[in-house]
Amino acid sequence: MNLVLLSGGSGKRLWPLSNDVRSKQFLKLLTDENGQRQSMVQRVFSQIEEVCPDSNIVVATSESQADPLRNQLGQGVELVLEPERRDTFPAIALACAYLESKKQLSRDEVVVVMPVDPYTELGFFRTFADMEKAVQSDCAELVLMGIRPAFASPKYGYMTYECDGDSFLTPSVPRKVTGFVEKPEPERAEKLIEEGAVWNSGVFAFRLGYVLDLVRAELPFDNYDELRRNYGKLTRTSFDYKVVEHAKSIAAVFFDGKWKDLGTWTTISDEMAAPALGNVIMDGCSGSFAVNDLGIPMVIIGVDNIVAAASHDGILISSIAASPRVKDHANEIAARPMQEEKRWGEYSVVDTAEYSDGMRSITKHMVINKGQAISYQMHSKRDELWSVTDGEGLLCIDGAYRIMRRGDSVTIARGSRHAVRALTKLHLIEVQLGSDLDESDIERFDFEMPYSAEGLQCE
Amino acid sequence: MNLVLLSGGSGKRLWPLSNDVRSKQFLKLLTDENGQRQSMVQRVFSQIEEVCPDSNIVVATSESQADPLRNQLGQGVELVLEPERRDTFPAIALACAYLESKKQLSRDEVVVVMPVDPYTELGFFRTFADMEKAVQSDCAELVLMGIRPAFASPKYGYMTYECDGDSFLTPSVPRKVTGFVEKPEPERAEKLIEEGAVWNSGVFAFRLGYVLDLVRAELPFDNYDELRRNYGKLTRTSFDYKVVEHAKSIAAVFFDGKWKDLGTWTTISDEMAAPALGNVIMDGCSGSFAVNDLGIPMVIIGVDNIVAAASHDGILISSIAASPRVKDHANEIAARPMQEEKRWGEYSVVDTAEYSDGMRSITKHMVINKGQAISYQMHSKRDELWSVTDGEGLLCIDGAYRIMRRGDSVTIARGSRHAVRALTKLHLIEVQLGSDLDESDIERFDFEMPYSAEGLQCE
């Protein structure tokens, strides 16, 4: 099976846990069978691994999600990185070009495309085989997955299909799709369900050649690298609009099980393994839940039906019913992300200050995972003072190597090129100093940091 | 006028803002006429300054409150420090001995003793003159202040007094007190108020000699220093029990105005100048209030009648009605204080971590006020790494001086003696490293840090 997972989105509907760089799929709000906190994307990957162990999996995503994806799924995860964000049609087009050029798939191979973060059961992934079979049997150009609706949601898309008296309950039999209704009013949704309509899961299956032809009709290209260079020329449009709406024949197979989008505090509240994650004491609260990602305790007393969430980005206290309004406020708070997962590890901003002369300081606790490196880079507007609190690292400043260990201080003046390789898991307290502390003040240099100090002359 | 202010208490009824070292009187929850945040003790001092500008004022308190008192009221505030906490009778005894020995007051001088933190109006302090006059007229050994009750509180003490048909409304006329009722049941309180009883404000006036004789009857002493040395021998009992209950004659004068104890979130909610202090966004909340002392934003949406408070110690979210329960939970959370006011300035703990080998780190943002110094000291179980983020300081490590400025790193290894004087307001990020990070790991040395680098040989 060939799977393309779309990992997009960024957003503030789950602020303060989600932010511009930390999309909802990376939040560890679920728990795995060992009781470990698990993100939505980790859950989906473990489910795919169980149901379709021998699949070709690529994740189509943007540069900004590369680090958290590698960090959560392992360095081996195969990513197709969009040079810029341009909606789902260009993203799927690029992934298909990748499958053709880099994975050498033939035009006839079936590709299944899915969002990276549905909250669902194993049966959902088993349905992929039915979709693949339906495409192979040429019953339609495009095969979708319908979900038996659990309730008349006005937030999902619906599909109607040809039903010759047969019931929904033979899910593996493909049906001809007759229409789509996006986000109907509640009464309309009720009616659709009565008439047997299903939710559109956003999973598509097709032959690779089918989509590649559509892409080439818009923008001819020889191979993946060429398409990637010209990525900005692809229409900024959705796969639904560009492909689904114009397909000559569409069929659907069906899944009858739990499936939802955990995109808001309201939906997440039902699926959290415990009413509280992190350091939380709850006393006499009914229907409330809390996530505390700060190191300090949170005490909640006698408050019903609220969500409380704390991260280095901020603190949210909201009635569950009113929680969708968080998005508007999060957008008002135009702050830099205070906690970020990186390919090399993660950091939290633990302190910020501004001084009377306009200078500022930002203090971060950084964790660099064993073997990982911060690439050779330079800042022109800030000095950095590092205090190593745990582990051992190999440091390179302007070409000179040294080992740094717990208890060491390192000063990196603005204009110095520097890189660090964690020889063991490395913890640093970094103090940034400057009048203009901006994550974009970084110049990267092409230089592979050695994996050990062996053979190097260290100061 | 001679005023003794009792500054005691520590407690967790206002957790996470109050803690073992930060008593409620130091919390800046009020605002002064310029809109600046003001603590209860600052408010009381400014009121005393306005009403009784030429008073002798001493504050009887414990060592642990010396730093916040000096920091909030100025270095000149006169403190009588109890060598250990032993209740109000020993504290007042020591203050009286101080007034006799150090201020050379005669036995006949009138002393007014009051708690450091009533939330009241200027008229309250004007009543002191009536109390003084009443003592001078020898109408009683002890003169108290009665407050016209605003409601039938079951939490206050009540006094009854001789009332010869005259009304309460000539407050400056002293009355003979006939009895006390502590914390009556609500119905009893209603009845007391009908009968004309008043709240006992906890303010006492007496001639200095009267109380000194009582103290000497229990423990003879020549002077303040001797009493201080033998402080542990004084009975651990309250002034009410030891003095008031045994007085031959007690009179009261009266104050008819606003007076309350802002000791719980419930009482504070009414007096806060704004429903939100700090970085707080409130959307559709009725009857709720919030205090955010963290640097990150707090967003509250659609939650009524709650208190939300955040500090480096923790986060509280509670219905106002259930908020008294916070005390129990705060006691469960046996954490070190994460934010503390010191004589020299203040610090916040911004990060704590524990590593796989049992080592720990604590990161603090420290602010040392201009001219202030951290005394010559040594830690035997921790190293400290300082990053200077603002200002200029004179540092002394093991006898060697150096100037430190923004951008400098300083390593203070365990066993090093060190002191610092802030030449301008100084900000440091301090990283402590050790397996046992305990505030008590400190040895202080007698050494006056110079006020400038003039004439010193600096490295």
Task: Give the end-to-end Cα distance of chain A, rounded to a whole number of Å.
Answer: 52 Å
What is the number of beta strands of chain A? 30
Pairing-aware structural class of the strands and helices of chain A? alpha+beta
Whole-angstrom Rg of chain A: 25 Å
Overall spatial form of chain A: globular
Biggest sheet, spatial arrangement of strands of chain A: 20-21-22-29-24-27
Count of helical stretches of chain A: 10
Major sheet attributes of chain A? 6 strands, antiparallel
What is the averaged pLDDT score of chain A?
91
Q: Would you identify the regions of chain A where 5 or more consecutive residues have pLDDT less than 50?
A: none
Strand content of chain A: 35-45%
**For this entry, what is the oligomeric state of its chains?**
homodimer
Would you write up a description of this structure?
The structure is a homodimer of 459-residue chains. Chain A contains ten helices and 30 strands. Chain A has 459 residues and is an alpha+beta fold. Chain A has a six-stranded antiparallel β-sheet. The first copy, chain A, has helices at residues 40-51, 63-73, 88-101, 122-136, 186-194, 208-218, 224-229, 239-242, 265-271, 326-332; strands at 2-7, 30-31, 37-38, 56-62, 79-82, 110-115, 118-120, 142-147, 157-161, 175-182, 198-207, 250-255, 259-261, 276-278, 280-283, 289-292, 298-301, 306-311, 314-319, 339-342, 345-354, 360-368, 373-378, 383-390, 392-397, 400-405, 409-412, 418-422, 426-434, 443-444. The first copy, chain A, starts with a strand and ends in a 15-residue tail after the last strand. In chain A, helix 3 (88-101) crosses helix 6 (208-218). Strand 17 of chain A pairs parallel with strand 19 (314-319) of chain B.
